[in-house]
Each structure stands twice: as C-alpha cells, then as structure tokens.
Amino acid sequence: MTQRNEVRTKMPILDILDEDAFENINPDISQQTEVNFYRGAPPQWLNFYLDEKNKAEERFTKRDGYDELLKQIEGKFGGITYVRLNHKPGSGGTTLAMQLLWDLRKTFKCAVLTDPTLESSLIATAVIDLYAAGESKKPTVLLLVQDGKVHILRESFVAELSKRKIDSDKPIVIIVNCVRIAHINAKHSKKDGVVNIVDHLSVNEAEHFKRKKKWLLNKYTKENGSPSIPGIIPTEFHGFNIMQSDDSKDYVQRAWVARGLPVSNEGVKLIACLCLLNCYVPGSFILKTDCEKFLKTDTDDSSFEKKMGPFYHLMVSFNTNGSVGQQVLRMAHPKIANQGTEILHDRVIKKSDMARILLQELCTGDHCLLLSGFIKKLLTKRQEKGKGNWNPKFSRLILNIQKSTLNDENVCLLVLKEAVKKFPKIGTYPQTLSRFYYLVNQDFSSAREWALKAKQIAPLNSFIADTLGEVYKYYLYRKVSKLKSNPNSLTEVLDLAEEAFAAFEQGEILAEKEQEKRDGLSQQSKIFNYRPKIAYLQVANQLFDCKRLEATANQYSRYENLISNISNQIEKRAIFINRLLSYTQESSNKKYPEYVLKEARQCYQDYIRDDWPEGLERGHTEDRLRELHRNWPNDTQKTGLNLKSKVKDLKSSFQETYEKYFRSRYLLPLLYLEKSPGIKARVRGEVRCYKVYITVGDEEIQLDVDHPSLALLRSGTVFFHLGFTIRGPTACDIQPKGVDEETIAGVLL
To answer: Taking the model in full, what pTM does it have?
Structure first.
C-alpha cells in the first residue's frame, strides 16, 4: 500500500481524488453513475473520469465562473488561502467546483471535506497529514468545503502548521468554499475573491447546453423516440433539463402536473416528506433502505418504483460517499422539491402534516440518528434575513406553517410537540415550544412549563436556562404595560421580576461553568453566553419604570427593598456589557444591536446615578495596557524598555480577567502607536511560520494579528499599523514588503 493510500484509509472525513480507482470500473456502475448525475444526483469523481473520455462537444458545460475561479486559485501563494464560490442550490456550483478540482489533479492533491461540521482541529490534522504524505511534486492540498466556516478552519490549519513547524512560500492548503445562497443578484463578482453563480445561463452556456442535450438524446434514444436502453429516458434527466431550460418554471410545473398522483398512499407520504426536507434543508436525504421499509417493498412483491408510481423519476438515488457510501434518496432538483411541496400542500398533504408524518412514520428505528440532524434544522434553525439583519423568531418551516394556517398557532405547536415525543433527550424542541408560547400565543403558563421541561433535559445548558428567564421577562413586560390601569397588579410585577432575576442569575452561573475545562478537555462552549446579563438589565429597566406608579404602603416597601437589593448587582453587569461591546465585536464586520448598550447605559444611570464610563475603563488589565502603550517608543532602536515583560504581564492579566468571556469575539484595537496625534504610524515587522514579530531595540516581540492577511502567507518583511487591543499589541492592516515607501512613517528606517 502506498503512503498516500495509507493516509486515505485513515481519513474518512476526506473524499480524496484518486483517478486510479476508476481503471477497472464496472461498465454498469459507470452508466448508472452517469445517468444519476443527469437526473439530478450530486456529482461523483467517476462522473468527471467518464466525461474526460468524451469529445469536446460532449463534455460537461463549464459555467462562466470557471475561468475566474481557476485564475484565483492559480494566483494564490503561501500558507492557507481560500476562494469562495457562491451559488444558488441546483445551479451547478458544486459541479463547477469538483470539475475544477478534477482538472487540477495533476497539480494539487484534491479532496472534498465530507462533513464540515466536524471539529476543526480534527479536519486540520487530516488535511495537513494529506499535505505531508509524499508526492512532493504536488504537495498543495486543494480542498473543497461545502458551506464551511473558513475563518475557523484557517485558524486550526495555521495552529497545526505552527505545531509541526511547517512553512512554505508555496500554498499548503487552498480552500474552495462552496456556499449555497438563496438569492444572488450578480452573476459574477471578483471582489474579495468571490465568484457568484446563478441559475440563469449566458448565451455561451445556453449554446453548449443545447449541444449537450442533442448528444444525450442521440445516446439514449432510438430513431423512433423510444429509449435505446430500457428504463433510461432523457426527458427524465431533470437535473440537466432544468439547467438547460434556463431554470424554466414551466418545466418544473410540467414535471409535476403531467404525473398526477402516486399510486399508493405510502408513496404520497414519502414523496411529500422528501419534498419538505429538500425544500427547507438543502443537502438533506433519506436512506433508500428506510424508504423501502416505509413502502413495505422489502416484505412484498411490489417494487419500489411501482409503489411510487409516476413520481418515481422525480427522485434520484446515489451513494453518499462515492461507491463506498450508503445509498440515499432525495428529490432530483431543489426546484422540483419546492414546487412539489407547494402542490402537495395545496392538494393533498399540508406542510404541518408532512412534518408530522416525517416524525411519526419515517423517523423510526436506527435511521432516527441520520434524520435527527436534518429535522433539527427543519424545525429549529432560524435563517438570517440578509446582511446586517437578525434571525427571525422561528425556523422558516414553522413560520410558513403559521402563515399558511391563517395564524392557527395550534398547528405549529402540534408539530413541535411531536418532535419532543420523538427526541425526548433534545432540549431544543421544548425550548422552541416555550418560545412559541410566550412570543406568539402569549400563554405564559404553558411557556413556563416547557421551559422547565427543557431545563430538565439539558440542566447545564445556559442558553436553555435563559429561556425560563425570558418567559418571566415577557410576562413582566405585559404586566407593566397594564399597571397604569391596574396599580394593584404591582405585586404580580414584583413576583415576576424576582423570578426573572433568579432565572437569569442561574443562566449566568451556567454560562461561567460552560467556560470551564472538563476532565482536562476543552470548555463546553467556545461562545460565552452573555444574554442573561443583558436580560437582567432589561428587567431592571422595566422595574425602574414602575417607580412613579401609585401603590399601597406594603407594595411600595417591597418595591423599594427590591430596587435596593438589585442596585448592587446592576453596576457590575452594566460595566461588563459596556466592556464587552467597547472592547470587542461579535466579528470584525458584525456588531451587536445598539439598543443593548443603550439599555445598559440607561440602567446604570438610573440605579447608580453616576456618569456612564466611556472608552478604556479603569482596571488592572486596562492599567497595564495604558502603561504598555505609553512606554512603546516610535524609535525602534531604543533599548532597555523591557517591553516583552510588559506584554507578557498584560496577556497574563487578560487571561485572568477577560479571556473566557472574549475568546470567540473580535478584539477591537483600543489604542494605536501614532507618529503624531491622530496619525497612525506604520511599522516594520517580520512573518515567520504564520506569526508576526516586531523588533524594538534588543527585544523581539510576537504580535497578535487583527485580520488574517495575505501577507501572513509567506515569511518575510511586512508593514502594519501597531494597534493595542485589551489583550496586547496587534498588527493591523498588514501589507507585504513593497508598499509605497512614502507612506511609511520615519520610525521604520
């Protein structure tokens, strides 16, 4: 066994391109793989092996983004880089990416990441193992990732390379991040290394598809129009035909209308469940063996195809990982799934019933584990509306069911309750039920019941514990709004406030524990949950607004006692939120809503009656940061400053005070080295093995990095602004050697 094959057997998370595997392929397998692809199955490496043997006019159509993507890949240098391919589902984006990998197999080690949700450190180990495994003539790994979090992968790759002390001027890993996006306006964009592919064809693409269709008809149809190979009908090549028809809605509608309804009742249910999954969860599928059991084709003489009736050819089967994976079923194209969901919803089975059938009848036995991830996304994953907008309150399916049932909320509740029955150990479903009860139904008693149920299932999860506090908070809002007309209800307000404070305090305790290491392993959560702190202040603000209301002596005395008791708690929470949002952001381009800081400021001013702290506050870590910044010279030749020790002290202080709260967040530069007031200085540094160093006098100091930069991809001289975050000195806006010398401050030379 070759070294590369040994690596291959150890890497189930990578589908490594190995064209030698197709030398003695069974002709029947080749034909079925080709037919499945044209019918709508995702591409396999075998498809490109077969395609390469065709004449030029018979080859796959290369979308117009191919050349731009190739140009970007060939222009990469050093370390870990990536290109991004945005594509609408069903537009051929994955095919384009795999075609590119196939064409570059002589230059790169090509692989597809089979599961981007795996721990990034495991992925990094496998990919760097592949990089290090022989074949020095083409060491670079070209890695295709579907909807991956590239910034997290890059960090893990760099950490793995640094650990192994691997450095190279040539690319080590180039990630092709293939991202499914529902709405893309521009067909192409060269900005920031992004290529966009839509489902409409250019003139050249349309002409090539037309020639390809003619070739397919000639290959699979006799002169009299009958199939040249029994069972293979080109008019049922839906994946190809939808693209060739330039995403024609008429084609998709005809594909459904021409077929009527399936023969069996089970067939109706199965096609409905497949449509629903594929419509709302891109990339989802069901094991074919489970579908056969559902149709009872494994126990009687009726074939699977016969039971599915005329809708059989709207589905496609394929193996999940080439020839070695399990055989699964999905709809032939996302648009067929979308159209089918609406047709079946209008005529036969409502979407809510589709979901319940999926849970009650299809999600049984061993394959519950496979479907559970898809169902969780279906029922609980909230989609972002767009750039800069926050998530809707519920999943797209739940919102659509609510809308389609004329706001009959009970239908949504029945679906979610069915999910609780099916997955009694998953706290997300009762949590979602609780949220639906208090946000939509305003049934706070039921909301509390389900929030407590969720806590029983996941007692250590701070995000689930937070839900109980939210129930009390929203009920409190409702009661406060009615206080003017009913001052006597202040007692209920105070009861709810106390319950809310207690729930959020419990959430805070759990959030702290989630950052602790378990049995020497990593912390439970990489994200610190600070929502209970924000919610605590929101409740306090509501409570303060009740101050001017008339109340009985007993009520007022209790109110004053509660206000007095929480005043001591307000300051530390408000200051924490201020520091969180002043020192950090969720990411480099995503801020938290402004109302959060506004609420914290209002609460601080109401209860503490002091000026709201602005900018860099007072504190042990902050004082060390000021001292370091004050002592950092513009003259890089100055010696005896002991800066390295000061940097070490600052980082140590940061670890003690802020690291567990800020570890997943982008740290903002709070101060800069300036050549004159308000004018940032550019300084010289050096990159070695993906780390940035600066020399001041006789000291060499490693810096943090503000953003991953192309300049980090190869060793050598770089220039940057020297910023100071709460963690320490940071290289910002890194530029490689060769920038205009006139823009560089005199401190460089």
So the answer is: 0.88
